[in-house]
Amino acid sequence: MTERKLKIALQKSGRLSEDSLALLKKCGIGFSNGLGKLRSEANNFPLEIFFLRDDDIPQYVEDKVADIGIVGENVLRENGRDAAAIEKLGFGKCRLSLAVPKSFEYEKLQELNGKRIATTYPKILGEFFKENNINAEIHTISGSVEIAPSIGLADAVCDLVSSGSTLFTNGLREVETVLNSQAVLISRPDLEADLQKTLDKLLFRINAVNSAKQNKYILLNAPNEKLEEIIELLPGMKSPTVLPLAEKNWSSVHSVIKENDFWEVVETLKNKGAEGILVLSIDQMIQ
Ligand code: ATP
Ligand code: ZN
Question: Nearest Cα to 242, choosing from 264, 223, 269, 263?
């Protein structure tokens, strides 16, 4: 019997497309993705890929057209019912925020009572207002939310922001965060056992790629009398590897460090006498 393929839905073209494809490639999954293609099959993993509009992905997953998908948490919360997020993916980071025209002297949320707010996220915004006891009028529009106040359609907006530059160029000021979002892997409930097995395999690889992203591989040379202090700074996966150098009384130290504290650690290492420090990216990390 041939193996049943797991079907994954990805955004066809947009902010999540490139990172979603790159993730699959880093997981060692090979496929062709010619421009304009709606469907593709992996050539070394039981995976079939569908390219869709992001807003439709939760629905397709719930209707079993696909088994899993990659979407922003914003889209899952707005359009999803039964599909669940099973893994945060660390890209597509943004926030859904309330913003007001610069002339609006905003101080607190209560000032939005009775106001008209334009958004493409009526469900999430409605829930947010309910939780905070705000009675505002939500105007659902399908795009270009940021121009709504200047054409007199709304008093404020609720829209996705990453840098805030779009808001700024439209004379708007961000005042509240409604939701923090990033891309997530979603799945329909009750996957059949064979598909679940394939998903577990994929998740194992995604975890390896994501832990690698948060870490760096570091190599350095150190005088032996400083080794102890240097090793203390470099816990590594188990403990650092120490190899003797051809030069007497010197060693080479290899280890793994967290991306976050990487600059700080490198500076301290240098001060402690480390030389020839090399820092490399890691593709996959299996713990
Ligand atoms: P589609 O044609 O697939 O419907 P779209 O225009 O709705 O595309 P994009 O703008 O490509 O969608 O955004 C896709 C997702 O990227 C968003 O739902 C959100 O999760 C994420 N994202 C990250 N940063 C931003 C941002 N600054 N603005 C909008 N979305 C962002
Ligand atoms: Zn969309």
Answer: 223
